[in-house]
Design brief:
277 residues, 8-stranded mixed beta sheet, 12 helices, globular, disordered N terminus
Length: 277
């Protein structure tokens, strides 16, 4: 795990695996992006065979990111640490945040070399704000917190939004997932917010486990969790209304309204925002 591209002897292109599917590139495919390879498309199409609404699900998840960002910016927060950023898809989080508050500051973190290759798109800040990118792994939170890019961009004495959207289901052990969240969120001051979404099998018990099996066979461990398990990440925090809901039902607004006819089973992502009291 590194906090940048310095110190790597091999070129970036050599570190981009084109022979195995990658969750970030599959996600990009579901969103209609262009940064994926044949192996990613093949795995994604297998997912669509067993869960035909995956495109709608990831779009709902992406819309949750946008809405939660607008809500937190509207509540006066100005700093974001976004881990598991994924391949840039406009509007990116900083574009949403700075659209509300031009002085917003955002630090992105991802461990995929493809995201690193496109990270310039994540650093097009307004003059008043600031953005940065850390090439790092969520399983090594101490290195993320020690990264100079973080120290230069965010003031950790002021509230921060810790955003891990569609990420923790790739940490199979729930104890490890809790340890990661605690290490990153506990040092943050009062008023900081935790923004999470997580895939579940509860709402589509026939299709979702088949998706999990495809990811696992492709080499990316996917651990679906229940609403009760998801709720444990917010213990001690004040949940914003409407609490824990499927991603498309979290605070729909005029920009990202509730999609007509989209069911909870079709989304199969829980989402919530908790604030440190």
């Amino acid at each position: 795990m590194s906090t940048g591209d310095l110190g790597h002897e091999e070129p970036l292109s050599a570190r981009i695996r084109q022979d195995v599917p990658h969750s970030a590139r599959m996600y990009d495919y579901f969103l209609g992006g262009k940064d994926h390879y044949a192996v990613d498309r093949e795995a994604a199409e297998r997912v669509l065979e067993v869960f035909p609404d995956m495109r709608s699900a990831v779009q709902a998840n992406r819309a949750f990111m946008r809405r939660s960002t607008r809500v937190m910016a509207g509540r006066g927060l100005r700093q974001w640490l976004d881990i598991g950023t994924g391949i840039p898809t406009s509007p990116n989080l900083h574009e949403v945040a700075q659209g509300v508050a031009p002085d917003a500051r955002v630090v992105y973190v991802d461990n995929d070399p493809v995201v690193l290759a496109h990270s310039r798109a994540l650093m097009t800040s307004t003059p008043e704000g600031r953005t940065a990118y850390i090439h790092g792994d969520v399983r090594d939170p101490d290195t993320i917190l020690a990264a100079p890019e973080l120290a230069r961009t965010l003031d950790l004495d002021q509230p921060v939004v810790l955003s891990m959207v569609a990420l923790l289901h790739f940490v199979p052990d729930i104890a490890e997932a809790h340890a990661i969240v605690d290490r990153l969120f506990k040092p943050l001051p009062r008023g900081s917010a935790l923004v999470l979404s997580h895939a579940t099998a509860e709402l589509d018990p026939a299709g979702a486990p088949k998706v999990q099996e495809i990811y696992n066979r492709a080499g990316t461990t996917l651990q679906l969790r229940t609403r009760q398990e998801f709720a444990t990440f917010f213990e001690g925090l004040t949940l914003l209304e409407p609490g824990i809901v499927t991603a498309h039902r979290w605070c729909p607004d005029d920009i990202d309204p509730l999609p007509e006819g989209l069911t909870d089973a079709q989304v199969s992502f829980y989402a919530a925002v908790g604030v440190k009291p």
